[in-house]
Amino acid sequence: MKIGFAARYNPLDKKTWSGTSYYIYQQLSKLGEVEIFQYKLPKLLQEWLTTQKSINRRWFKKHTSVEFLKSYANYFSRQLSKDLRKRPIDILFVSGSSQLIAYVETDIPVVYMTDATFRQLQGYYTSFSNLAGYNRRQGIALDKRAFHNAAHCMLASGWCKN
Question: CA-CA distance, 22 to 11, in Å (whole number)?
């Protein structure tokens, strides 16, 4: 079986996501060949998102969670969709990266694992507090699309399940 592993951060790094992705990657490797799908943010998109963040902070006194903006998710979902056509796999495992699958176009079954929803993160972490209204709406929509695009969801905490 050929398994795809998609994540924003390197699943071979034990320090990423408290080691969760690393250990899941190790277990999946026992089941078959694992292909990693990981992408860097291009400079132009990074500059655009940084500008948005600065404008919100300076002019409107609001935070911005750029990884939960539609433009960010569109870019990463498009990259993943292209790669899935070039690098065939049987199943795709996605570790805490709703951005990668919110707008993905594939018939490959997706297993999505997360420990929290975007809505739960608001107010829990300072960086997710006082978000611009459009950022909240896009983040919630992005999460919904990710859950909808998944064939199976693994919720890594009771908090997330509720």
Answer: 5
